[in-house]
Amino acid sequence: MTVLSNLMPGQYGTIQAIHAEQALYQRLNALGFRIGKKIALIRRASFNGPLHVRIGATDIILREIEAQRIQLNLV
Amino acid sequence: MKRIALLGMPNTGKSTLFNRLSGASARVGNWPGITVDLMSAKVLIGGHIAELIDLPGLYDLHGFSDDEQVVRHFLSNHAVDLVLIVLNSSQIDRQLSLALQIKQLGLPTVLLLNMQDEAKRSGITIDTQAMASQLGFPVATMSAKYGDGCPQALQLAGQVLNNVAVIPAPSDVSKLLELDSQIEQTMHDIVKHSVQMPIKLNDETTDKIDRVLLHPWLGLPLFFLAMFLLFQFIFTAGKPLQDGMAWALELFRTEALEPLLISLPSWLNGLLLDGIYNGIGTVAAFVPIIVLFFLVMSMVEDSGYLSRAAFLMDTLMAKMGLDGRGFVMVLMGFGCNVPALMGTRVMRSRPMRLLTMLVIPLSLCSARLQVFLFMIATLFVASQAAYIMFALYMVSFFTIFLTAILFKHQYKSTEPFILELPPYRFPTPRQIWLRGWQEVKHFLKRASKFIVIGVVLVWVLTHYPTDVAPASAATIAGQIGQIFAPVLDPIGIDTQLAIALIFGFVAKEIVVGSLAVIYGLQGDALSHQIAMNIDWVQGMSFMLFTLIYTPCLSTIATMKSESKSSLFMWLSIVWSLALAWVISFIFYQGARALGF
Ligand SMILES: Nc1nc2c(ncn2[C@@H]2O[C@H](COP(=O)(O)OP(=O)(O)OP(=O)(O)O)[C@@H](O)[C@H]2O)c(=O)[nH]1
Ligand SMILES: [Mg+2]
Predict the structure, then answer these.
(1) Is the pLDDT confidence value at B201 over 70?
(2) How far apart are CA B562 and CA B342, in angstroms?
(3) Could you identify the atom of ligand 1 that is nearest to the CA of residue B114?
(4) Ion ligand 2: residues, CB < 5 A
(5) Where in chain B is the domain with CATH 3.40.50.300?
(6) pLDDT at B450 (0 to 100)
(7) Which CATH code fits B2-201?
(8) For chain A, how are helix, strand and coil distributed in percent, rounded to 5?
(9) In sequence order, what are the residues at sequence separation of 6 or more whose Cβ sits closer than 8 angstroms to the Cβ of residue B73?
(10) CATH superfamily of A2-74
(11) What residue ranges do the domains of chain A occupy?
């Protein structure tokens, strides 16, 4: 068990839990963040910038602080 | 008349479809949140004229950002006869959630699986029959961009529209919008039964390009290099067009207008030729370069690079209380500040939205670009032009950063930053052409409204009273200039330039036009005269002021309507005027102190 923000580029995991308030939870849901989905970290921007992740055919960028709310099982 | 609404997640091609069906020219771009307001057009569907409405994209029916509110408000207040759900076929596994939510509203619906071309390329197959029977409404695949499947989709929509007997009342729909939906399982079942996705989905080309453009160290330098090269291209390619246009306008004056108007009384002749024609002509010479600029802009917007720019700049923007989207709005502001201000509707937190709106008017828009092109060509040699121009863009960024840093404590927010990164796309020639044409129309509209009135007014002010030399200190314009002299003298701005700045408050297009009127000259003669009157330090100070103070009345009006606060609007006006003066002052006095 780890959180999305701990992944290294190229690593992936399956989403176990999303800890977010209602509005953020719904937005994440709509973008494909759902329990059981496979998610990969593609790259990180320099200076602790946003993370570039991929779920299915959707590429998303999000900040570290949001990525910490997403719990994963490493695959 | 029947009413048809286009609904779907952002960036799925709703506006592209809207344009294709109606022949309208709604703005299209590869960025989630291009459409933030509704737009309607008449279309012929199923033998009836119907009203088709393009709406902002929304992620789910419960969203509360201002663009999503537009959709909720629309559905709660208007009876809709048919909903066309548009979704991106490649992302059907997640976008189906919105279709299922909309289904619960009980409105007659057709589901359009758009971007079939891309889905096919990545090997996704969808059984539309199976999906339709599970969903309970018709499903069709199509490609709004290239037109495949559009006639069939239209036919399907027509059939549904003709079979509809009763539609739910908007008040009922409004209640259903609040309903919390459990759709996860249904979605999973439908995708499992009717969609086949290959294991490896990603777009190889996009991945390859991203490896370079989003490189941790090269990404930002490449961004600035690309920007420099694009502008270099615009100016190099645009210069001959601009010269040609100026030549043609001059020829038209000497060969056609002058002989034609010779018999008119001299004041009328002067008003028409030295006032209106010179004023508009001087501005019109920049039309080709502005069109070129917008063609390049539309390609950048449609390429999908904007989201990448957001990725690259987010860290820096976060330090200033903004986020990557704010940076993209600033880039959009390079075209025109008004749509950029409206684009901030995608932000949910009000403080962040206000802070972004406060910096957008500092973005170097295309109307200011005209002024700079003119002044730079007048006061600098050709080899310096590109660098001066680039420096002005950097100053624009600098004032934006400075403003954000100074105000970020007043506008604190904890808005999450989550953004889709769409694949790279390239606009079709038709899309590029439509956009260019749209900008020409927009320019002509502004020209007929602001510029004509502006130049006529300037002409009157500089020619009254009639017994003194035009534009001299004794004219009304001269007197107005005198009033402002105490504030404008310290920044090197003389009476003539002051009049141009005052009218520039209405719209920057008037600035160059009014200079032509003030000096009563056009083309090269005008440039020579200005170069005799002011030196480059004064010119630069004038450009800095023009860059920073309030862009135009439309921006002010948008500022007010989007923030719903007059106080905020005044803050923006006062702040930009003060900043403009201070920066021009520092530059002008600094340059003089250094002996320039
Ligand atoms: N390949 C492909 N691209 C498409 C298709 N339809 C639209 N696009 C592109 O997708 C991008 C988004 O198109 P828009 O029409 O602006 O999407 P929208 O749904 O109106 O987006 P918002 O207004 O942001 O909600 C643009 O770059 C279009 O050129 C299609 O059928 N195939
Ligand atoms: Mg749109």
Answers:
(1) no
(2) 7
(3) 31
(4) B 14-15, 34-35
(5) 2-201
(6) 82
(7) 3.40.50.300
(8) 20, 40, 35
(9) none
(10) Ferrous iron transport protein A (FeoA) (2.30.30.90)
(11) 2-74
